[in-house]
Write a structure and sequence with these properties.
Layout: H1 2-7, E1 12-16, H2 23-27, E2 30-35, H3 46-55, E3 60-61, H4 72-81, E4 84-85, H5 90-97, H6 99-108, E5 116-117, H7 124-134, E6 138-146, E7 149-154, H8 157-175, E8 180-184, E9 190-198, E10 204-211, E11 215-216, E12 219-220, E13 222-225, H9 232-248, E14 253-261, E15 267-273, H10 280-287, H11 291-299, E16 316-323, E17 325-326, E18 332-333, E19 336-337, E20 340-342, E21 350-354, E22 361-362, E23 369-377, H12 380-392, E24 395-397, H13 403-410, H14 413-416, H15 424-427, H16 429-432, H17 441-455, E25 461-464, E26 467-475, E27 481-485, E28 488-499, E29 502-509, E30 512-521, E31 524-529, E32 532-537, H18 542-545, E33 555-557, E34 562-567, E35 574-575, E36 580-586, E37 589-594, E38 599-604, E39 611-612, E40 617-622
Parallel strand pairs: 1-2, 3-4
Antiparallel strand pairs: 5-8, 6-7, 6-8, 9-10, 9-14, 11-12, 13-16, 14-15, 16-23, 17-18, 19-22, 20-24, 21-23, 25-26, 26-27, 27-28, 28-29, 29-30, 30-31, 31-32, 33-40, 34-36, 34-39, 35-38, 36-37, 38-40
Helix pairs in contact: 4-5, 7-8, 12-13
Length: 629
């Protein structure tokens, strides 16, 4: 929409129930309601979207990053209606969307591919035999897969069938097709993708590569361009292979050719994404282009704005994906209100790509991404410094985010050295998830001062992770305060100022001056500085807390709001600790609910297809010796 406005093109938005107050609706020149929150009844309802295009007399449809962006049927429907689909021809979407077909086309075009089985015979026996031939570990992938869905690794023959069943189930749910392919799994690979662009005149170019190796749940978390440590000769070969791939399917518009790269910088075609990628801004930053503008121009029949020799690579860019999720709980997606949201100031070297504002709700219905933070500098080290500095200024209160984790990740010595691969997070787990330290006394003093100055209320206790802390505060006539915490004395003074919609606390503690961003939300004092963030809770008086004396039932609870996909147990079944009880789908992710302890199933509270709210008791469990009671 920003690009369309820049080009003088009017934009029309469609929106579901969940998005009626969203940013994209406010930004558009016109907006039309298309149905309930569930994407099947709104953003995936092709006829409803075509109907809006007719009513608004739209000439073209940009399908975005997800939903219908790689849907052959939708591209065909647009063509039949005489509406331009801003993407490649439907034949390219079809051929590249089916992994087995795409591998055959690439092999014929001379693009290197990885050893695997992409055949019609989908029997367990045949797939297992091919896995043995290829050699473990193998990757099981949904033929129509994407976004990490329907993808499992089998490290040995013993676990092959379990992983196959899991991949098929997720593939069926996500793509309504449980066909899979098997391919050799490259240990500690890099995920390097090349941005390509074709026009309707037979031209195709590459705009260099992005390294998207650092992932969790097979999904990207930090991307950068160009790829660290990739020599110019390898870069050229990657780019030329990607252009060969694009020309093999008569590609038009923006696309991404994904490669697996091994430790010797050998590369193999993995798949082609027939759309604009979420991480396209890092490519724009290093090439000085607007790829959405290119999409609109090419869709209108123009030639690609630049030929290959005119596309220059300059500097280095990073993109950090900011998610509503809890890295300490296996990156579990979350939802909730953005009670406080402040960001680094955007400029020509710092981009904030977001669809939310302070006060908005991150919905349980769609992807939990809040924003993309994109930075550029002259070289990788300078860009990495800028990324970390900007992450410190991206402050959110109201739901769990991965910002602290992104700081931990981008500050890791191996990441700084550019030694990235898809197993980076699991390999460096202990350093990336340090043990939580007690809140420093100086931070408690800042919280106390912030509260006093902001609310003019003197309080004598705060709740931090390590329990309650008593703070004795004396007011001095010169406007300073003497504070005492556990027999330690602090002389504290300071003031509050407002800048760019944020409140800043300037604080002097025993002569040491610091500046933090301050947000007080409900009963929580939130402080953000370049040293990190802290949340200090104010205890609720006992008469208001409504503390319940009843304990929780023995059993499994829902880690988040979602749909029960599969139920494995019934009342009376015996289970061991760790046994799977249910599979739950929430925020585009499959999550297996396991027994927290051994026992006998007393009651299953939810059936397949039903919705469960976060913390709802899913399965009630009895200890074996209680069965007779």
């Amino acid at each position: 929409m920003r690009t369309a406005r820049k080009m003088g093109v009017k934009s029309v938005a469609v929106y579901s129930d969940a998005d009626k107050n969203s940013m994209h609706v406010a930004m558009a020149d016109e907006a039309y309601f298309i149905g309930p929150s569930a994407s099947q009844q709104s953003y995936l309802a092709m006829e409803k979207i075509i109907q809006v295009a007719r009513i608004s007399t739209a000439q073209a449809i940009h399908p975005g990053y997800g939903f219908l962006s790689e849907n052959t049927e939708f591209a065909e429907l647009c063509k039949q209606e005489g509406i331009i689909f801003i993407g490649p021809p439907s034949s390219a979407i079809r051929d590249m969307g089916i992994k087995s077909t795409s591998k055959a086309i690439m092999s014929a075009a001379g693009v290197p591919i990885i050893e695997g089985y992409h055949g019609e015979d989908q029997s367990d026996k045949c797939l297992k035999e091919h896995a043995r031939r290829i050699g473990y570990p193998v990757m099981i992938k949904a033929v129509r897969g994407g976004g990490g869905k329907g993808m499992r690794i089998a490290y040995s023959e013993e676990e092959f069938l379990d992983q196959l069943e899991s991949a098929r189930r997720e593939a069926k749910k996500s793509f309504n097709d449980d066909a899979v392919l098997i391919e050799k799994f490259v240990d500690n690979p890099r995920h390097v993708e090349v941005q390509v662009f074709g026009d309707q005149h037979g031209n195709a170019v590459y705009l260099f590569e992005r390294d998207c190796s650092v992932q969790r749940r097979h999904q990207k978390i930090i991307e950068e361009a160009p790829g660290p440590g990739i020599e110019p000769e390898v870069r050229r070969k990657l780019g030329e292979a990607a252009v060969k791939a694009a020309k093999a399917v008569n590609y038009v518009g923006a696309g991404t050719v994904e490669f697996i790269v091994d430790s010797q910088h050998n590369f193999y075609f993995m798949e082609m994404n027939t759309r604009l990628q979420v991480e396209h801004p890092v490519t724009e930053m290093i090439t000085g282009t607007d790829l959405v503008e290119w999409q609109l121009r090419v869709a209108a029949g123009e030639k690609i704005p630049l030929m290959q020799e005119e596309i220059a690579l300059r500097g280095h860019a990073f993109e950090a994906r900011i998610y509503a999720e809890d890295p300490n709980n296996n990156f579990m997606p979350g939802a909730g209100p953005l009670l406080h949201l402040s960001t680094p100031p955007p400029d020509s070297f710092t981009r904030i790509e977001t669809g939310v504002r302070q006060g908005d709700e991150v919905s349980v219905h769609y992807d939990p991404m809040i924003a993309k933070l994109v930075v550029w500098a002259e070289d990788r080290q300078a860009a990495l410094r800028k990324l970390r500095y900007s992450l410190h200024q991206y402050n959110i209160v109201g739901l769990s985010t991965n910002i602290d984790f992104l700081l931990s990740l981008s500050g890791h010595a191996q990441f700084e050295a550019g030694n990235v691969h898809t197993n980076f997070i699991s390999q460096h787990h202990d350093e990336l998830f340090p043990v939580k330290q007690a809140t420093p006394n100086e931070v408690l003093c800042q919280a106390a001062l912030g509260l006093i100055l902001r609310e003019k209320i003197i309080t004598d206790a705060f709740r931090v992770q390590s329990g309650e802390v008593d703070i004795t505060i004396d007011y001095n006539h010169d406007g300073s305060y003497n504070m005492q915490i556990n027999d330690k004395a602090f002389h504290v003074s300071g003031d509050i100022s407002n800048e760019r919609d944020s409140t800043y606390l300037k604080c002097s503690i025993n002569g040491i001056v610091s500046k933090s961003k301050l947000a007080i939300v409900d009963n929580t004092i939130c402080l953000f500085s370049l040293k990190g963030s802290a949340q200090i809770g104010l205890p609720v008086p006992k008469y208001l807390s409504g503390v319940s004396a009843t304990g929780t039932h023995g059993g499994a609870i829902a880690p988040m709001t979602g749909t029960i996909e599969k139920v494995f147990v019934k009342a009376g079944d015996k289970v061991q600790a760790g046994d799977p009880l249910m599979v739950m789908i929430a925020m585009k992710m499959e999550h297996t609910i396991r027994a927290p302890k051994a026992g006998i199933i007393k009651k299953v509270n939810y059936q397949e297809g039903s919705q469960a709210k976060r913390h709802a008791p899913l399965v009630e469990l009895l200890d074996e010796d209680m069965e007779s009671k």
